[in-house]
Amino acid sequence: MHKSSKSSAGSCCHAETATHSHSSITHELLCHFPYAVFAVALSLVFLTLFGYTNSTGYQELHGLFHTLHFLHILFAATGTVLVFRKYGGSLLASLGVGAIVPAIFCTLSDAIMPYFGGLLCGIPMHFHFCFRDHFTTILLFLVVGVVNGIVMSFHDSEGQKRYAATAHFAHIFISAFASTVYMISHGFSDWYNHMAFVFSFLLLAVLIPCTLADVVVPAFFGGMSAKKIKQRGQGE
Q1: Residues 166, 108: Cα–Cα separation, whole Å
Q2: Closest CA to 176 of 57, 38, 5, 78
Q3: Which of 8, 102, 143, 232 has the most CB atoms less than 10 A away?
Q4: Which of these ranges, 116-125, 174-183, 222-231, has the smallest mean pLDDT?
């Protein structure tokens, strides 16, 4: 029995709460790294299979980007609330954290970092800010994601583990695909001849924001929320 507990404590990314409290940002980055590598690689494979390796047809990808971006927000909101609640965050506070954290980090991963990646290569990029142009649609996906996260937080630990196993890679893959599609559909049409740079930069664009949004930030604020609840209880 004791051996099983130690094995669980050594697991990565979705270990029990006691384990997460001792996790570091470096640990979580290393944990997410394989997911990000496979996700970015698969996104480039799909774009190659679709035939987007030259300078034609990129306007068609704008619709695909929006679909991926909206779904990324949905998955991110669910995961953020789940981790926040797992660390003891209150139900009311999870509404704010579940909306604000994905709004910031999904935009960073899907648009801002790919935009600056193109600029680093000297490409005249076009910046598209979805929260300004598609606010109502994004709000709907955020709300559904937050509600889904709250519902999932009432499931038993086994149910949450099953969700983590099936949805975590899907979340990171959607993020990687959205970042890749944004970069090439908003100016970087010559991506195929700069594949090494695109792969490396998008790896960072996915790895850092997703790690922060998935675990580090909601865990930090969840712990703070739990501490405040405990202090209020002691004060009474």
Answers
A1: 24
A2: 38
A3: 102
A4: 222-231
Q: What is the pLDDT of residue 99?
A: 92
Instruction: Of 228, 161, 172, 163, give the one whose Cα is nearest residue 15.
Output: 161
Indicate if the pLDDT at residue 37 is higher than 70: yes
What is the distance of C-alpha 81 from the center of its chain? 12
- Return the axis-axis angle of helices 91-107 and 217-235, rounded to nearest 10°: 160
In sequence order, which residues have a C-beta less than 8 Å from that of residue 206 and are 6 or more positions away?
36, 39, 40, 109, 172, 175, 176, 179
CA–CA dist 149, 67 (Å, integer): 20
Report pLDDT digits (tens) over 42-69: 989 988 887 666 555 566 788 889 999 9
Tell how far CA 181 is from the center of its chain.
Answer: 16
Total Cβ atoms within 10 A of residue 35? 22
